[in-house]
Amino acid sequence: MPTMSLPRRVFLAPALAVALGLGGCAPLITQSPGQGLSPVNAISQGEDKHLMLFGHDVVSYFTQGRHQMGQPAIKSVHKGVSFWFASAQHKALFDAAPEKYIPQFGGYCANGLAYAIPWGGDADTWRIVDGKLYIFGGKSSKEAFELDLAGNLKLAHQYWDSEVKDANAFFQRTKRTTYNKVPHYKTGAELAKMVEAAKK
Question: 105-132 as b/e, with b when 16 or more CB fall inside 10 Å?
């Protein structure tokens, strides 16, 4: 088996580390577009480097009462974030008043934000409260949040405004899940027990 010369190995090792590092940092960049709308629950797809909610149409929640996939051919870019729509009418509604349709907390799970954690957010689990769209990480997250809707909304907005908005989502969730949990932190198992108890 041929061996690689030392100078070539010395050059390739740092290049490989940089390539791996950049690949691992992709979510950090995708979810932090800046321009006043960060962090966001976004993915990179084709030319859309910050695609909100996996391409779901944020206007459909309001006009049709359901989640619906948008089309890449019908889109708007607002503050560096791409939004796909199911129809030209939805795009026009969004363009006239984007702040009305943008999900709260950048489209992250509202229940996570009650713990200062920007994480998750499934387009098919949602609720509109006082004309604002909230996304959840699944049925159990939504049910846990609704145990104290007013209290959790207050906490989520407080944490978003005081420390999550304009922060890097990865670093924020690492801080709040690893070494600096909020005083009222509860695990997923604890929340599930609370939800089950409330159903009895």
Answer: bbbbbbbbbbbbbbbbbbbebbeeeeeb
Q: Looking at the chain, how many residues does it have?
A: 200
Residue 72, classed as helix, strand or coil, is: strand
- Give the DSSP H/E element, type plus range, for residue 187: none
Give the domain range for residue 89: 36-99
Burial 6-34 (b: 16+ CB within 10 A, else e): eeeeeeeeeeeeeeeeeeeeeeebbbbbe
Could you give the CA distance from residue 193 to residue 170 in angstroms, rounded to a whole number? Answer: 28
Assign 54 to helix, strand or coil: helix
121 and 45 in a single domain? The answer is no
Residue 23 lies inside a defined structural domain of this protein: no
Entry pTM: 0.84
Task: Provide the domain count of the chain.
Answer: 2
> Which pLDDT score, from 0 to 100, does residue 8 have?
40
Say whether both 81 and 115 belong to one domain. no
Strands (E), the chain: 42-45, 48-52, 71-78, 81-85, 122-129, 132-136
Q: What digits encode the pLDDT tens for the residues 72-88?
A: 999 999 999 999 999 99
- Measuring CA to CA, how many Å separate 170 from each of 38, 128, 164, 167, 191? 12, 26, 11, 9, 23
- Whether 16 maps to a domain, the answer reads no
pLDDT tens string 119-141 = 989 999 999 999 999 999 999 99
Q: Are both 77 and 109 inside the same structural domain?
A: no
